[in-house]
Design a protein that fits this description.
Threonine synthase, Ser/Thr_Dehydratase, alpha/beta, six-stranded mixed sheet, Thr_synthase-like, about 350 residues, lyase
Length: about 350
């Protein structure tokens, strides 16, 4: 029997757009090709006069958009002879780096803030065999430490300051255009370390330069109110938010995020934890898409801007949902209805069912 795998991962699919050659050892878990889903139910519930789509990057192999950048970063690290990679992480980067390093047969070292990482992300790094170091500090401190380490040891840094990470992550824009048949008018996403909004914009520009699309979207970035250094205009020493993936007080890609905002004519705003959690619950209950809280910042931001009259009627908008809800299951218990406990008999269950029908 001939087994065919039509999708070969983003490097093979968009080979001409990446700094690779046929000699590059491609390390892939077949990332990319994630769903673009029309959010028809939410539009009806909220009465939004928009054409709204979710790009669900939580469907990537390790459950987040980080896999797009990691396939390229690890492939290039292997090509350059690296035997180990290192990163600081709020969770998703460590999960992705650990998985792709395991796939490549090299060691991964991850630094995470103690007690500040969602359980689902921590266990991923652990099971993939990474050396997990918890520091008594925050993400920004962890990033400073790993930056210093790579200056002294032959280890490859795979945070988003690694240019290959941004190269891989730009593939989201390619896929959105291929799936829609054009570029959207707006593209919204959460902003933490700010590499992803920079990557999205880079991808759109490159696709337009190649004649694949005729127009460019306005880029919309949303930070959590408790971790909004770009919006506030200064680093946040002790960032706090329920959206752990974007709990970052001094983004490494701050300048390029501002460039993406300004060049595209978009905006970077902030949303409260309450707004994030409301959107988080709504996306799951209305559309059947379980994303992690940080992902919902994009939808929360769209709702906020819509109320301000920011969008024209019928605007075509894509929201990137960056991570899978299974990454952070504990948050569900804060927002979802609790399970009902009934006696184990048909009469009791029937009586309850009749009440809710």
């Amino acid at each position: 029997m001939n087994t065919k795998f039509p999708w070969k991962g983003i490097i093979r699919e968009y080979f001409e757009f990446f700094p690779v050659t046929e000699k590059t050892p491609v390390v892939t878990l077949l990332e990319g090709n994630t769903p673009l889903l029309r959010a028809g139910n939410i539009i009806k519930v909220l009465g939004l006069n928009l054409e709204l789509y979710f790009k669900f990057d939580g469907a990537n192999p390790t459950g987040s958009f980080k896999d797009r950048g990691m396939t390229l970063a690890i492939s290039k690290a292997l090509e350059e002879g690296s035997r180990a990679v290192i990163c600081a992480s709020t969770g998703n980067t460590s999960a992705s780096a650990s998985a792709y390093a395991a796939r490549a047969g090299i060691k991964a070292i991850v630094l995470i803030p103690e007690g500040k990482i969602a359980t689902g992300k921590l266990v991923q790094a652990m099971i993939h065999g990474a050396v997990v170091i918890q520091i008594k500090g925050n993400f920004d401190q962890a990033l400073n430490i790993v930056r210093a380490i790579v200056k002294e040891y032959p280890i490859t840094l795979v945070n988003s300051i690694n240019p290959y990470r941004i190269e891989g992550q730009k593939s989201v824009a390619f896929e959105v255009c291929d799936q829609l048949g054009r570029a959207p008018e707006y593209h919204a996403l959460p902003v933490g370390n700010a590499g992803n909004i920079s990557a999205h914009w880079k991808g759109y520009k490159e696709y337009k330069e190649k004649g694949k699309i005729d127009s460019l979207p306005k880029m919309l970035g949303f930070q959590a109110a408790g971790a909004a250094p770009i919006v506030l205009g200064h680093p946040v020493e002790k960032p706090e938010t329920v959206a752990t993936a974007i709990r970052i007080g001094n983004p490494a890609s701050w300048k390029t995020a501002l460039q993406a905002r300004d060049e595209s004519g978009g905006t970077i705003d902030m949303v409260t934890d309450e707004e994030i959690l409301n959107a988080y619950k709504m996306i799951a209950s209305c559309e059947g898409v379980f994303c992690e809280p940080a992902s919902a910042a994009s939808m929360a931001g769209i709702i906020k801007l819509y109320k301000k009259g920011y969008f024209k009627k019928g605007a075509k908008i894509v929201c990137t949902l960056t991570g899978n809800g299974l990454k952070d299951p504990d948050t569900v218990f804060k927002v979802a209805d609790k399970p009902v406990v009934l006696p184990a008999d048909l009469k009791s269950v029937k009586a309850f069912v009749e009440k809710i029908l």
